[in-house]
Every structure is written in structure tokens, then in C-alpha cells.
Design goal:
heterotrimer; A alpha+beta; B alpha/beta; C alpha/beta; A: alpha+beta; OB fold (Dihydrolipoamide Acetyltransferase, E2P); 9 strands; B: Aspartate Aminotransferase, domain 2; 3 domains; seven-stranded mixed beta sheet; four-stranded antiparallel beta sheet; 15 strands
Chain lengths: ~120, ~450, ~475
């Protein structure tokens, strides 16, 4: 299972990486593995407001569905349209295939999230 | 103890053998964990067992208390003809005794006819995708309302024209009340939806969706020119309720630009049967597909590359999503979907057109005959297909009682002297003439 | 028989037809009076086939199905009992099938009497004051029942009660129905045996709780022995108890949910009362209530006046309407025929024989299959897969292998309390010989799992289609013939 250093993680298995005020959000390799073949990603719309800890969409496999919880608050500025046609990209590389980009309203929220080491521990449990 | 019922096969010996295997002394042992005060010790106030002979006699005597009437009413249930092939095919136990097709390897019959059903509903409505059917037209409309609100995410307001059938509207209102939808009924004008009023309410920008119907509660074929553009400009969705039989000739929900089409499949030849089982249909645009409630069947291949069918998009459903599901609906009206499939297969596009032509011509013949009596007038003067509403100075209640004495079910009493009549391809010219004659004896 | 793989659309030939209608003798052209822009712009592409084409096509399709008449369904929580044939004939009687639902009640007294008799019989059998037969299915009954629950609190001005307690082991329909009815779900934990943990329940009870939804026996087929205590606690907290009738069959003739303290319940006529599942419907989900809730039942309401005449009432306190007419009347006719066929004495054997059958299978198979909960079950029980976990053969494999042997699969991977759940419910209509055959095959599959596991893992081998590609079906949905043609 792949975990990347220097980005933050939520206990609900989303990752977030911050570049300036833009946060890129996706699901982790652990999450894609647990779900199996992803058949659909329910994404927010550009312009939507998301709130840290609240759901912003869902990922679906054939016989499971999992809500996506935003690790940060802010406005959605971009979604990964490639996932509309090919949701399976997440199975190929969950870190390269992000889901949304958010203009964050409070960068300090990231401090509440887990680092790679702490997240790895959660996955082992 | 022996069970001596034709539906329970256990002999005394069977019970003994089975109890021995289990290691119990008596059947009561198996209920020993239940507090004795809740074990029912009384006698049920229901009849003793009936043989088939007694059962038939009992049902016959109940049946004799119903009047067999020649029907001239609709209101959401139409006396269309049911070709005899249908009941024979539906009586095949491989269809009616089957469970929900969760095991696709042994359910290809069910899965394929649902796929065919979905295809037919898409052709009739013009929409991209249909589900495997819902309970009835009214609940399908309520589901459409909830779907529009869910798709709009943060908006909660739905407009519904009051020209939608009152029986559909009542169910939609009930669901809205409990589900917390801000449902606003928009008063109609001249027997049709007041589009200007709908447009002005859309301006606030808080509307998730709009529900209209055609043919509407008066039987009028409504003109929705411009409606979908205005609804979509307000970032709302449009649900259109229609009669699937009539869609063989009337402009389709897709041609009107609707996002969701729904209605009741009863008009596709289903017996009236005192209100059910019928079938609700629902179809939508591609964009809304994954927001649609209910079962959906898709085509795929098996391990050997053979074409096969399977329940799909199940991640939306209650057994997986629990309180986050698109709806709580589990079943469809599967056997009634088979009904629709066989009916539409037999009729084809030409047969459906002919059914509509005959019904429409009969309705216009009755309309002309009633107007000619001088006791009826047309309060709306709008186009109609098989159902229409007239105004009369005759006491409608008394008239309908007299009609039923003569073997007819008269038009529906809408109050204020308004009566709504329906004619299907089953009504002959002689029946209509006789019907009008009885009315004129008033 | 040869493999038949056509769609009805693929049999279509322009100009062929399967109908004949009377000649048009009205001398008017009605459709011409409708403005052309209100008419359909392009024709639907529907099949053009002969009557024999239709008959043969659907007869061929029927042969690809498994039904109760084909073989045994050990399908947990689905109560796949025999569907008596006389019931089908009764539901087709023309004296009923030609009745318009808006006909003057004076002219439909027989139908209303049947409705009234059936609701009364259900009230007798379940221990409630009155039933509505209007809901179309079990899930619809749940929704209606929860609407009754909310109406009761609203009528008392008790507006804070917006939450409903649902056990974590409940079927997904319970929380979904709660969501539709506008109630928030609060989960209560189950003990390892699936029953509700009273100590977990107590702190959840507050003045925000509208009620609790329960099945009893629970999802593992075990009776909630503390039900009277639970009822007392919930009632003391001002809440109502909802009984999910999915598991009513083992109690039929033995225990009445109303006597256990439940206020509201739904019944699945297509489970407990022998009406066919129809490949997924139409069902029927009557809702019964205790006396203090009768006025909240949905409209229309069938009532009987002092002269014995039946009438249709629209009560002002009713929760509203959940159906355009009277629900699935044809399904009610079948359930009515079933109750009369068994009669008040015969019906007392239903629950006990269903329970006997389930315990017999359980005790006969527990050497090969892992039984997590010992003790007498009711109508059903759950195995946690094969006892021998070293073979790598899963519950799914066993289920699919059963298809090869001519049995339907059990309910699998539910409840979620165990990893390899296999839920078995035989019903009372199966004979000892059928149960023994099933037991033999289950032993045989367990033996195969030990000796030739790959055979079980590759199953099914003999069905008309084999394992399906469900991933592609969900990724790129092909949902109608047009899309299939263009794919």
C-alpha cells in the first residue's frame, strides 16, 4: 500500500496537498483498494462551498459506496473531469488522480489532519 | 400433531424425526425463549379452513355484490383492452414465482424482460434511461420530486401545477410534508398550467424543480412551449407526468425538454382491478441517471463472452446506502413490467397509435353527442385525447346513480357541475349512443 | 433445449403485427383536432412482431428463470413459500378485475367487503386495532408506518421528536425509510447474537426520539427475549415501537406483535401470506396500528357502517395518501384466499412448522458450516461460511455452487455481523424430503470444498450464463436496446 510523505490525511481516507491557497483533494491508495473497482465518482460542482468534515461527494464500486468527506473548507475551483469518463483511474493511481481542488478559507485546518506516519498507523489497525 | 393443511406437508412422523434431530421434545420447546405472556392463547376471529369449492363459492358471492359496469370514466384508471396472450404468459410460474433477480445466472428471464421494458419506456418517453418500474404513477411522481430536490443539493422548493391529477397530487403532498420539501401548488388557468405564474416563481432562484402533467386532470393536452428553457435557466429540473399509452401519439416529455418523465403504466392494457396492481414508470436524462431511485437492469457479458443482463448501479440503493440511498424503494412492480413489455410487444407502434386513434375518435364522438344535447358545455375549449371535462346543469350525483342502475359508470364528478368522461377503444358506437340516451332521460 | 438469446426488438420486421382492433366507426378524426406541435414528432422504435413471436419469445425467456415451482429457495429473510394456484385464479375473477377504483362504493360492495375482511383478519393475526392495505410493498409499508409515527407526535404538538432508533443489524431499508419520512436515524448496537443491547439503548432514549424500529425475531432468527422491557423503556420515554414484519412468519399462529407492545407494524403479504414475489413485485405492505393511532392511517379508508354497508372515508386526521387508489388490490385477493384456505386452526401451524424446518436444517449442517449463534432459532438462522476456512472457498462460492445443484442460493453477506454470512430460511411449505435433499447437497459442497475446491470456486458451471461482468455494467451502463445497438 502506497502512502506519500509531505501531504496530509483525514481519518476518513482522503488526502490533501496544499499549494498556496489551493488544496488538492483525493482518496488514498488504501481507500481505493478497500473499495475495489471504482465505477463512479460523484463529484461536487465548481463553485460549491465545501466544509471540513462534511461530505462533498461519493465513490462507488459495484457493491459498495463510500461518502467523501472534505478535509478542508472553501470553494471548489476545479474538479477532475477525467474521472467522469474513467473513474478507474483512481484504482490505477489514487494520488495522481485527484478529485477536486479547493480554494481554502482556513489553511490552519490542515494542522488538524494526520501526517503520513500517523495515517499509516490507522491503516494498519 | 399433524398439520392437515394442503400447504403444510408435515406428517406426525416427520415432526417426530425432525424434533429428534434437533434434540427438542416438542415444538413448544422451540418457543421456550419467548415470554409466556406474549404467546397467543386465544382464538382468532376468522373463519375455519375452506376447501377450494367453498372458497370459490365465497368469492363468487362477494363478486355478486359488485356491479359490472360499462366504464365511461378514467381519472388515472382506464378501461383499455388486455390482449389474451398477456394473462397466459404472466401465468407462467417461472415468472411469477421467481424472486428478485439477485442471482443473475438463474434469473435471465426476469432480467431480460426488464431490459426490454426499460427500452420500451425510453422509446415511449424519449428519455435516455428508465428504471425497472415503481409502485404506481403517484408514488413515482413523489419519488421524482425527492429526486429533483436531491439533485439540487441545497434547494428545497418544488412547484407543482394544480392541473396534475388530484390523486397524484395528494400522494406528492404527503411525501413532501414528511420529507420536508417545500411544495408549492401553482394554481392553473383555464384548465391548464399557468406558465406565467410558474415563471415568476422561478425568478427567486430557490426552486429545485417543477412538476406538470399532460394530459392533465381534465384530460387536456397541455402546451408546454418554452417551459423547459425557463426552468433550466433557473437551474431547476422539470418533471412531466404523462400517460404512456398516449405517448405513442402525443409530444413526448423528451421533446418538451423534461428531465424526468413519470406516470402510470395502467393505460397499457392493465385490468382495472379496483386500483392495482398497476405500475409507475420513471425515466430520466443521462445526466440524472445515477440520481434515479429504484432498480435498473443493464446489459453485460458473462465469463464466456455471452450477452447477459444484470442488476446494475446498485450502489445507489437502500441495501447498500442505507439512510444515504436515493430512496427506500426495494422492489419494482416486476410482473407488471412484464405486463407492459408483452403488451407493447404485441401492439407495436402501429397498434398503440390505433388504440389512441380509436379512443380519441370515440371520445370526440361522445363529446359531440353530449354538446348536441344542449345540457353540456365545454368550459375550457382545449385539445384532448381520450378524456375530457364538460360542464352541466344536471345533478351529477343523481345522474351517475341512474347510469349505474342501467349498467354504466358515468363520468367523474369533479364538483361545480364539472364531469370528466373517458372513452377507450373498448367502447362501441352503440354503447356511446345508449349512454347518451340514458343521460338524456334525465 | 437450444440456447435462445434474442431480444424482442431483434425479432422485429416492418409491417408485422400482433394485434387486431375493431374498425373505426365514429366518423370523426379526433387527433386532427390536436395542434400538430402537441403531437409526437418522431415515431417510437417498438417491435413489430406476430402474436406467435411474442408467445414463443417470452416462453423461451421464462425457461431462463428459477421460481418456487422450479425448486427450493433457502433464501433468508425472504420467506419464499409456495404460492397456491387457486389464489391466482381468484385474483383474475372478472367480478373484481373489471372494477374501476373510482366506482361508486354502492356498486363495489364486494370488493370493499374483501378489503375490510382482510384488514380485519390481519388485525386478528397480528394483534392490532386496524390495518390499512394501501401500501404497495414492505418498504412502502415501513414508510407509511413511520409517517403514522410522526403524525402521532405532531398531532400532540410534540415537535422535537425527529429521531428514530434503528439497530445496526437492521436491513438497509429501515434507515432509508426513516430518511424518506424525514426522521434522523440513531443506531443502537447489537449484541453478538444480534439482539438489542438494553444498556446501549437506555442513554439513547430522550424527548427527541419518535420511536424504535425492530424486527423480532431479529435478523439472526433469534427472538428478542427482552422485548417487554424494551417496550416499557421506549413507551416511558414517549416513543412508539415499530415492528418490521419481514420476520413475522415464525410468529404467525403463535405470537402477535401487538401483544409484545408494538404500536405499528407492516406485513409483507408476499412473504407471510403466500402471494408471489413476481420476480420483484408487485408486493403489498399493509400497516397495522394500535387503537390510539387508527385515525392517522392513510386515505382512502375502507369503513363499515352500522347497517353493514361499506364506504370509503377520507379522514381529516389521516397522514395523507400513499397511493392513488386502494393499493395492490389483486395481491390482497390472493392473501385473503390464503388465509381462508388455512382457516383459524390451520394458520396456527405456519410459524411452528417454519421454525421446525429452520432448526432441522441448522442442526443437520452445523458440523460442516460454522454456526456462530447456538440455540433454537425461529424461521431462519445464519452460518458464518464453511467451518473449514483453510480451503479458501467463500460463502459466495458455496451459493453459486448450489445453483449447479438446482437450488436457489441462500441470502449471503447479510447480516453484516459476520464476514461470511449465509442466511437460510426454509418456510413451512417445504417437506422433510426437500430439506433432506438440500442438506445432502450442502454436505456435498462442503466435501467438494475440501477435496476439489476449484470446482466450487468456478461455480456456477451448468447455468445458462456464468459469472457476469458487473464492473463494466456499472461503469458504462447500457440500459436499453438503443444503447446496446450503438455500443
Amino acid at each position: 500500500m502506497k502512502i506519500i510523505e509531505n501531504i496530509r490525511y483525514a481519518e476518513s481516507h482522503e488526502w490533501v496537498s496544499l499549494d498556496g491557497e489551493i488544496a488538492t483533494v483525493g482518496i488514498t491508495d488504501y481507500a481505493q483498494h478497500a473499495l475495489g473497482d471504482i465505477v463512479y465518482v460523484d463529484m461536487p460542482e465548481v463553485g460549491d462551498e465545501v466544509t471540513a468534515g462534511e461530505d462533498f461527494g461519493a465513490v462507488e464500486s459495484v457493491k459498495a459506496a463510500s461518502d467523501l468527506y472534505s478535509p478542508v473548507s472553501g470553494e471548489v475551483v476545479e474538479i477532475n473531469e477525467a474521472l467522469e469518463e474513467e473513474p478507474g483511474l483512481i484504482n490505477q493511481d489514487a494520488f495522481a488522480n485527484w478529485i477536486m481542488k479547493v480554494k481554502v478559507s482556513d489553511p490552519s485546518e490542515l494542522e488538524d489532519l494526520l501526517d503520513a506516519e500517523a495515517y499509516a498507523k490507522i491503516c494498519e489497525e | 400433531m399433524s398439520c392437515s393443511s394442503r400447504y403444510i406437508p408435515h406428517t406426525e412422523d416427520d415432526i417426530k424425526v425432525m424434533l429428534e434431530r434437533i434434540g427438542a421434545k416438542s415444538i413448544d420447546d422451540l418457543y421456550a425463549d419467548i415470554p409466556s405472556e406474549v404467546i397467543f392463547k386465544g382464538e382468532y376471529d376468522i373463519p375455519s379452513a375452506m376447501s377450494e369449492i367453498e372458497l370459490r363459492n365465497h368469492l363468487k358471492s362477494l363478486g355478486e355484490k359488485n356491479s359490472q359496469l360499462t366504464v365511461f370514466a378514467g381519472g388515472g384508471a382506464y378501461d383499455h383492452y388486455s390482449p389474451s396472450v398477456i394473462s397466459h404468459l404472466l401465468a407462467r410460474s417461472e415468472f411469477y414465482t421467481a424472486y428478485t433477480p439477485y442471482q443473475p445466472e438463474i434469473s435471465q428471464g426476469t432480467l431480460q424482460y426488464i431490459f426490454e421494458y426499460q427500452s420500451m419506456i425510453c422509446e415511449l418517453t424519449g428519455m435516455d434511461a428508465s428504471n425497472a418500474s415503481m409502485y404506481d404513477g403517484a408514488t413515482a411522481t413523489a419519488e421524482a420530486m425527492m429526486m429533483m430536490v436531491a439533485a439540487a443539493k441545497k434547494k428545497n422548493r418544488v412547484l407543482m401545477s394544480d392541473t396534475v391529477s388530484p390523486r397524484v397530487a395528494e400522494v406528492v403532498k404527503t411525501y413532501a410534508k414528511f420529507h420536508g420539501v417545500d411544495l408549492c401548488v401553482v394554481e392553473g388557468k383555464g384548465g391548464v398550467s399557468d406558465l406565467d405564474s410558474i415563471y415568476s416563481q422561478l425568478e427567486a432562484g430557490d426552486v429545485a424543480g417543477v412538476i406538470v402533467a399532460s394530459p392533465n386532470r381534465y384530460g387536456i393536452v397541455e402546451d408546454f412551449s418554452g417551459l423547459s428553457d425557463r426552468v433550466h435557466a433557473a437551474k431547476a429540473l422539470l418533471t412531466m407526468y404523462s400517460d404512456p399509452s398516449a405517448l405513442a401519439v402525443l409530444r413526448t416529455p423528451a421533446e418538451w425538454g423534461a428531465d424526468i418523465a413519470c406516470g402510470d403504466g395502467q393505460s397499457l392494457g392493465m385490468p382495472l382491478l379496483f386500483g392495482g396492481p398497476y405500475l409507475g414508470f420513471m425515466a430520466c436524462s443521462k445526466a440524472l441517471l445515477r440520481k434515479m431511485p429504484g432498480r435498473v437492469v443493464g446489459a453485460t457479458k458473462d465469463a464466456d463472452g455471452k450477452r447477459a443482463f444484470v442488476l446494475t448501479l446498485q450502489a445507489r440503493e437502500q441495501h447498500i446506502r442505507r439512510e444515504k440511498a436515493t430512496s427506500n424503494i426495494c422492489s419494482n412492480q416486476s410482473l407488471m413490467a412484464l405486463y407492459v413489455t408483452v403488451y407493447v410487444a404485441l401492439m407495436g407502434k402501429n397498434g398503440l397509435k390505433e388504440v389512441n386513434r380509436l379512443s380519441c375518435d370515440g371520445a370526440h364522438y361522445l363529446y359531440d353527442s353530449l354538446l348536441a344535447t344542449g345540457r353540456f358545455s365545454d368550459p375550457f375549449g382545449k385539445p384532448f385525447l381520450k378524456e375530457f371535462t364538460l360542464k352541466t346543469d344536471i345533478d351529477v350525483k343523481a345522474l351517475n346513480r341512474r347510469l349505474s342502475d342501467k349498467g354504466f359508470m358515468g363520468g367523474l364528478d369533479l364538483g361545480d357541475g364539472l364531469v370528466e368522461f373517458a372513452v377507450t377503444e373498448k367502447r362501441t358506437r352503440e354503447e356511446i349512443d345508449q349512454f347518451v340516451k340514458v343521460i338524456m332521460e334525465a | 433445449m437450444k440456447h435462445y438469446d434474442k431480444l424482442i426488438f431483434e425479432l422485429s420486421r416492418p409491417g408485422r403485427k400482433g394485434y387486431q382492433l375493431p374498425a373505426d366507426s365514429f366518423g370523426v378524426d379526433g387527433i386532427k383536432s390536436i395542434p400538430s406541435d402537441l403531437l409526437r414528432q418522431s415515431d417510437p422504435e417498438l417491435p413489430e412482431v406476430s402474436e406467435l413471436d411474442v408467445v414463443r419469445h417470452y416462453t423461451n425467456l421464462s425457461s431462463k428463470n428459477f421460481g418456487v415451482d422450479t425448486g427450493f429457495y433457502p433464501l433468508g429473510s425472504c420467506t419464499m413459500k409456495y404460492n397456491p394456484k387457486i389464489n391466482e385464479e381468484i385474483a383474475a375473477l372478472p367480478e373484481f378485475s373489471a372494477l374501476h377504483p373510482l366506482q361508486d362504493p354502492e356498486t363495489a360492495q364486494g370488493a370493499l367487503e374483501l378489503y375490510w375482511n382482510l384488514q380485519n383478519a390481519l388485525a386478528q393475526l397480528a394483534g392490532f386495532a386496524e390495518f390499512t392495505l394501501n401500501p404497495f410493498a414492505g418498504a412502502h409499508g415501513e414508510l407509511t408506518g413511520l409517517m403514522v409515527m410522526r403524525s402521532y407526535h405532531m398531532a400532540r404538538g410534540d415537535k422535537k421528536r425527529t429521531k428514530v432508533i434503528v439497530p445496526d443489524s437492521a436491513h438497509g431499508t429501515n434507515p432509508a425509510s426513516a430518511m424518506v419520512s424525514g426522521l434522523q436515524v440513531v443506531e443502537v448496537k447489537s449484541r453478538p447474537n444480534g439482539s438489542i443491547d438494553i444498556e446501549d439503548l437506555k442513554p439513547l432514549l430522550s424527548d427527541e426520539i419518535a420511536g424504535i424500529m425492530m424486527t423480532n425475531p431479529n435478523t439472526l432468527g433469534m427472538f428478542e427475549t427482552e422485548i417487554l422491557e424494551i417496550a416499557k423503556l421506549v413507551h416511558e420515554a414517549g416513543g412508539l415501537l415499530y415492528y418490521d414484519g419481514a420476520n413475522f412468519n415464525p410468529l404467525l399462529g403463535k405470537v402477535r406483535p401487538g401483544d409484545m407492545g408494538f404500536d405499528i407494524m407492516h406485513i409483507n403479504l408476499h412473504k407471510t401470506f403466500s402471494t408471489p414475489h413476481g420476480g420483484g413485485g408487485p408486493g403489498s405492505g399493509p400497516v397495522g396500528v394500535a387503537a390510539h393511532l387508527v385515525d392517522f392511517l392513510p386515505n382512502p379508508h375502507v369503513k363499515k357502517d352500522e347497517n353493514g354497508k361499506f364506504y370509503v372515508d377520507f379522514g381529516k386526521d389521516a397522514l395523507g395518501s400513499v397511493s392513488a387508489f386502494f393499493g395492490n388490490f389483486g395481491v390482497m385477493m390472493k392473501a385473503y384466499a390464503y388465509i381462508l384456505s388455512l382457516g383459524k386452526e390451520g394458520i396456527r401451524n405456519v410459524g411452528p412448522m417454519a421454525t421446525l424446518n429452520a432448526n432441522y436444517i441448522k442442526e443437520s449442517l452445523k458440523d460442516d458450516y460454522l454456526l456462530p449463534i447456538a440455540g433454537a432459532c425461529k424461521h431462519e438462522f445464519v452460518f458464518d461460511g464453511l467451518k473449514d476456512k483453510s480451503t479458501g472457498v467463500t460463502t459466495l462460492n458455496v451459493a453459486k455452487r448450489l445453483l449447479d445443484y438446482g437450488f436457489h442460493a441462500p441470502t449471503i453477506y447479510f447480516p453484516l455481523l459476520f464476514h461470511e454470512s449465509m442466511m437460510i430460511e426454509p418456510t413451512e411449505t417445504e417437506s422433510l424430503e426437500t430439506l433432506d435433499e438440500f442438506i445432502d447437497v450442502m454436505h456435498k459442497v462442503a466435501k467438494e470444498a475440501r477435496e476439489t475446491p476449484d470446482v466450487v470456486k468456478d461455480a456456477p458451471l451448468s447455468t445458462i450464463v456464468r459469472k457476469l461482468d458487473e464492473t463494466t455494467a456499472a461503469k458504462n451502463p447500457i440500459l436499453n436496446y438503443k444503447a446496446l445497438k450503438n455500443a
